[in-house]
Amino acid sequence: MTEKKTRPTPPVEVIRRPSVAAPPRPTSPRGTGARPPPARRAPLEPPTQAQVQALAIRERVPARIARGELDGKMKARVWRKLHAEEARRFDEAYQLVAQTPGLALEDAFALLQSGLSVEELKARRARTARRVDLRDARRRVSAEAIDRWLAHCIQQRTPLAVVLADRTVLDVLVAVQPLALMLERGGRVEKLQVVLVGRAHSWEQAQPSFPRDARLAQRPAPVAREPDRRPVSDPRPFLEHVGSTIHLELRNGLLVDRALLAVGPYDLLVGSEGEDFLIPLHALMAWKGGPSEGPPST
User: Fold this and answer.
1) What CATH fold (topology level) applies to the domain 144-289?
2) What is the CB neighbour count within 10 angstroms for residue 5?
3) What is the pLDDT confidence band of residue 244, given thresholds at 50, 70 and 90?
């Protein structure tokens, strides 16, 4: 068998064309191929409080929403559509502000939530302000003299006359609690019931010299639990009268003209050395500086 002969493949010449160079890509400081940073916008001036308030009133929205719109954020009208129920409450509050001159927006919401009238809300705010002022007044007056007098009575086991609205208790003071006096035989006596405290022999000698208001002697005035509702509760006006005679009208009708010895946050010490009396401020119906000529001050 004969072998088949193959013809040789002719050589192929490859001709390479020169490549065209692409233009260089721009580079940035942050690396090759990074996108250039966006141009920085000039900062906007922050809106003034007057601008925020004007927009909030016009659109009847919270001040934060008005400020956001002026800062380029959500529009006030968009907020009203998204929060229809809250927008309705702001409509009512702004309408009440428009109808009541001088009424603040937060007060309008307080009126809507509480159901009070404007006069009732003002009275409540005034009472709150009086409570804060009274609390500050009591903190500014030292209780040292009153505490020393009570501590001496406890230490010496001094027989005392504790005058209440309708009776007098003769006993010995054994302790003082924040809201009560602890007596040896009578036990706990609430401070609000006390009208006057003095040494038993001093009270026995001075009692005939104390005139009485017949109306209050028959029906003593009650004591309000809230200090701001009492006729006298601020101790500061008494400070300038220390050492002088003052006139006191007590809620059980007793009329006391004695020198003012000391003032505490809750009590007065009147009389003289060896014949002094402790009178709580809550027991006062009226008072004035000087003897009893003329009408007393409330």
Assistant:
1) SH3 type barrels. (2.30.30)
2) 5
3) very high
